[in-house]
Amino acid sequence: MDPVYFDNAATTPVDPQVLETMLPYFTEDFGNADAAHQFGRNCKVAVEDAREEIARLINAEPSEIIFTSGGTESDNAAIKGVFSALSPAGKNEIITSPIEHHAVMHPAESLKRQGAKIVYLKPNSDGIITADQVKEAITEKTAVVSLMHINNEIGSINPVNEIAAVCSEAGVPFHSDTVQSVGKIPVDVKEIGLNMLSISAHKIYGPKGIGVLYVKNGTPWIPWLQGGSQERRRRGGTSNIPGIVGLTKAMALCDKNMEANTQKFVALRERLIDGLEKRFEGKFTINGPKDGGVPHIINIGFKTDSNQGLDGEMLLLNLDIEGVCVSNGSACTSGATEPSHVLQEIVGDETIANSSIRVSFGKQNNEKEIDFFLDKLEGVLDRMMKVAS
To answer: What pLDDT is recorded for position 212?
Structure first.
């Protein structure tokens, strides 16, 4: 069997229909969308059509859609933009959580140099932040609340509707990183009540290097990236036309096929968990929600009969050698392997946190690949546990 790819939460293959949509904008309609001639006008039409379609898909206004280079830029622009707008008036507190993506945590931390105070809300064992926690944390100095919709490592779903209602009542802008939710579950910005959200194309079978920042009209926000007059002076830089049309097509396809994809992910998840329980009973644990999270992400920790941990990095590498590509719950920094910041927060057992892998499904995966993974995992774990015991 060809190598099996179970790291779709990191990135996905570009859908052939998306690629087909993009190709003309590399060679035929290659103009600069801000040029006055016909090559530019054709591209400008493509950009504005895309803006309208994306707005329709998330129930926003076209004027609220800003094209960016991806989720990281969108997160930076949201947090720094609101802080810049409100901090001169004394609003210098940023409420977030310690299990956010680093694209949220690092920009927030960087603002400490400008007087920001970061308030971290502790998630429960499933990785959830409640609306009551947010309500209790908000003060008259709160500038922005930023909490992700779906956690990229454990698949937990925050109650963003409830959190948004609390923020709205307090008059505090609410930003959510929806990189793992848009295209996977319904996201309606008006129904949820969001002020800002971030989208990345390459998580939903679109190209890398393109994303969206939604900013609700009237939200206090100052553009973060200056340059030209593109995006109504809200984000300078020549428009990435192939990326924009690719992102739009990817979102439209995911919206159209959302129910079918969800059913597939549910079936794959059930088959994987059933196989784990039959083969590794008592030797594995699900990190985060076993039920109630999204079906396309599952984080699994392993241990030996003597409750000793395994080397998560070696587990990943051994699986890779066997033709299975997953990601690790650990990150290598300065030569030292440490658990991910997410697992450090929600897993009480550091042994498990160090022995975990994330499996994330894509629409191209199938049940035969699950069985192949389980077979290879059994052999790898057998060898590693003999060494560890």
So the answer is: 98
Interval 299-322: pLDDT, tens: 999 987 766 778 888 999 999 999
Q: Which long-range contacts (CB under 8 A, 24 or more apart) does 34-40 make?
A: 34/228, 34/229, 34/230, 34/238, 34/239
For residues 350 and 343, give the distance between their C-alpha atoms in angstroms, rounded to a whole number.
Answer: 8
Residue 360: its pLDDT value, please?
Answer: 97
Report CA torsion sign: 378, 379, 380, 382. Answer: positive
Structure tokens at 377: 């995992």
**DSSP states along 331-382:** EEETTEEEE-HHHHHH-S-HHHHTTEEEEE--TT--HHHHHHHHHHHHHHHH
pLDDT computed for residue 338 by the predictor: 66
For the chain, percent of residues with pLDDT exceeding 90: 78
Report yes or no: 197 and 177 within 8 Å, Cβ to Cβ: yes
User: Domains in the chain, please, with CATH?
Assistant: 16-256 (3.40.640.10), 258-388 (3.90.1150.10)
What is the amino acid identity at position 6? F
Q: What is the pLDDT of residues 6-22, one digit of tens each?
A: 999 999 999 999 999 99
CA angle, residues 245, 247, 252, in degrees to nearest 5 = 95
Residues involved in catalysis: 332
The pTM assigned to this predicted structure is: 0.94
Q: State whether the Cα torsion 125-126-132-133 is positive or negative.
A: positive
Count the Cβ atoms, other than its own, within 10 Å of residue 117. Answer: 15
